[in-house]
Amino acid sequence: MELLSRQLSHAEKLGDLVGIKVSRYAPPLSHLFYADDALPCFKATPDSFAVLRDLFKTFEAASGQMINLSKSYIKFSPNAPSDFKAHLTSILKMQTVTSFKTYLGVPIDIPHKRSVVFNPYIDKLSTRIALWSSLHLSQPCKLLLISAILLASFNHLMTAIPFPVSVCNKIDSLIAAFWWRSDWQRPAIHWLRRDVIQAPKDYGGLGIKNTLLWSQASLL
């Protein structure tokens, strides 16, 4: 993989591949690697696709490993014409997808409205809480479930993606409702403000994490 990385970097220096910039003043990005997975990112042209195909052949001959084309995919910009995409796809002989969905549990394709990405996670959290609420759990048991399972389920995701404020508020609301309700079908009385139960135990709170602050701290 180090050989392939050097080949891609060299092709970018020669101008055979033009990397993608995530912002106007950011350096161009030509590829990302994790373990045996590779994600080349470049401007789509017939020449660049031909260069990438030749680099793959060189890599296979040097390493003795073959790229599994049936598990490799190409994603184009939404504005790319269909005939243009079909021509470029025939060069690498890979399938075309409109979304990469998730990788290692983290969404890759994030739309402009980021909160949409988190809907499945919110639904899963709500389903868990609804199931547990019918068990008439004690407060210490609820606190353990909140800290060890409900909030912990977002640990991995929070280190990769900043959570929108609306999503954080929704998570905090669901957890607060779980804490105060004995029956999920009935409204509950919140006897204390949310910031009180989210305060550290040394300051009289329950130590339940504030999702927004936790998300911001996880990305530092």
If you had to describe this structure to a student in words, what would you say it looks like?
By secondary structure, this protein is mostly helical. The protein folds into two domains: 2-98, no CATH class; 107-218, no CATH class. It is built from nine helices and six strands, in the order H-E-E-H-E-H-E-E-E-H-H-H-H-H-H. It has a two-stranded antiparallel sheet. Strands 3-4 form a two-stranded parallel ribbon. A two-stranded antiparallel sheet has the order 5-6. Strand 3, helix 3 (82-92) and strand 4 (95-96) form a beta-alpha-beta unit. Helix 1 (2-14) packs antiparallel against helix 2 (46-63), helix 2 (46-63) runs parallel beside helix 3 and helix 4 (119-133) packs parallel to helix 7 (165-180). The model has no long low-confidence stretch (mean pLDDT 88).
Tell me the series of helices and strands, N- to C-terminal: HEEHEHEEEHHHHHH
Biggest β-sheet, characterized?
A: 2 strands, antiparallel
Total number of strands:
6
What number of structural domains do the residues give? 2
Question: Roughly how many Å is the radius of gyration?
Answer: 24 Å
Amount of beta strand: 5-15%
- The general outline is elongated
- The overall pLDDT average reads 88
* Distance, first to last CA: 29 Å
Helix content: 40-55%
Structural class: mainly alpha
Which strand order do you get reading across the main beta sheet? 1-2
Model regions low in confidence, pLDDT < 50 over at least 5 residues:
none
**Count of DSSP-assigned helices:** 9
